[in-house]
């Protein structure tokens, strides 16, 4: 039951993010790992609710992922009171930590307007399953494949 509640919470949170960032063509959030590593999603989320805080085009076009992440975390701390819970270098990776991203996005969700439409939730439900694969699932699949190869090799010997 707890897993179902977590899945529903993640779906609502992802729906809110997608709905909030819909007008930012450079941003397509489909998960809580790789979709965040370039810093654009955090900045778009902030800008969609508080466009008065910074110039989106300047941030989106002229900064590196680490700079964009640092910018978003600094804006959130200064204007929303959200502590820098993440280091930009830890997020600007191939597979950022899902739980850390979820924790930070939840903090943003609590500080910003939270309206989520049923349309946004249905859109997330329709996302292809492969776009929502987490790092843990990715590692698990590779581990299973590796153990099958080892077992197969052992049987052939």
Automatic annotation (TrEMBL):
CDD domains: CH_DMD_rpt2. It comes from the Eukaryota. InterPro entries: CH_dom, CH_dom_sf. Pfam families: CH (PF00307). SMART domains: CH. SUPFAM superfamilies: Calponin-homology domain, CH-domain. Residues 7-113 form the Calponin-homology (CH) domain. This is DMD protein. It comes from Prunella himalayana. The gene is Dmd_3.
């Amino acid at each position: 039951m707890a897993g179902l509640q977590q899945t529903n919470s993640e779906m609502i949170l992802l729906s809110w993010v997608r709905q909030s960032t819909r007008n930012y063509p450079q941003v397509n959030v489909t998960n809580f790992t790789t979709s965040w590593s370039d810093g654009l999603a955090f900045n778009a989320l902030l800008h969609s609710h508080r466009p008065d805080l910074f110039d989106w085009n300047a941030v989106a076009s002229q900064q590196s992922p680490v700079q964009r992440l640092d910018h978003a975390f600094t804006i959130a701390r200064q204007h929303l009171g959200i502590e820098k819970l993440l280091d930009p270098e830890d997020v600007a990776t191939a597979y950022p930590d899902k739980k850390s991203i979820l924790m930070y996005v939840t903090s943003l969700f609590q500080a910003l307007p939270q309206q989520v439409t049923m349309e946004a939730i249905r859109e997330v439900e329709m996302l292809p399953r492969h776009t929502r694969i987490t790092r843990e699932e990715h590692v698990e699949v590779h581990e299973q494949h590796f153990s099958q190869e080892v077992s197969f090799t052992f049987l052939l010997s």
